[in-house]
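Thread: "does anyone have the structure for this chain?"

Original post by V.I.:
We have the sequence but no experimental structure in hand. Need at least a predicted one for the grant figures.
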Amino acid sequence: MLIKQAPVVYPREAQEQYITGKVIVRVLINERGFVIDAKLLKSLDDVIDTRIDEKGNISINFIKKSENLSALDKAALQAARQCRFEPAIQNKRRVKSYFNIPYTFVSK
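Reply from O.Q.:
Generated one for you, C-alpha cells below.
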C-alpha cells in the first residue's frame, strides 16, 4: 500500500511544448517500505501494439520508439523513487514486492 506519494514535477520544457501523456513506473519495494529499484513499464515514447490471435486472445505490447528517456519519463522515475510504502506481508513476515505507479501529465 502506498503511504507517501512524492509529487511529480512536470518539466517546464514539456509544459511549454504541450507534451502530455501517461508514464507507468514499476517499483521494487524492500521489507522496510523503501523503493530500491524503479523501471519504466510504459514510457511516454512507447507505441502500443495490440493483436488478437485466432482464438480471440488479446495481447498488448509496448514497443519502444527510442532508447532515450523523455523528460516526462525521467520526472516520473524520480518521483517514484521517493515514494514510501507499507511493506507487503507474506506468512507474517515483511517481504519485497512490486507496485506499478501511473503518472499522467496534462498540459494546462
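V.I.: this helps a lot. Helices lie at 12-16, 71-81.
O.Q.: and Residues 2-105 form a domain with the TolA/TonB C-terminal domain fold (CATH 3.30.2420.10).
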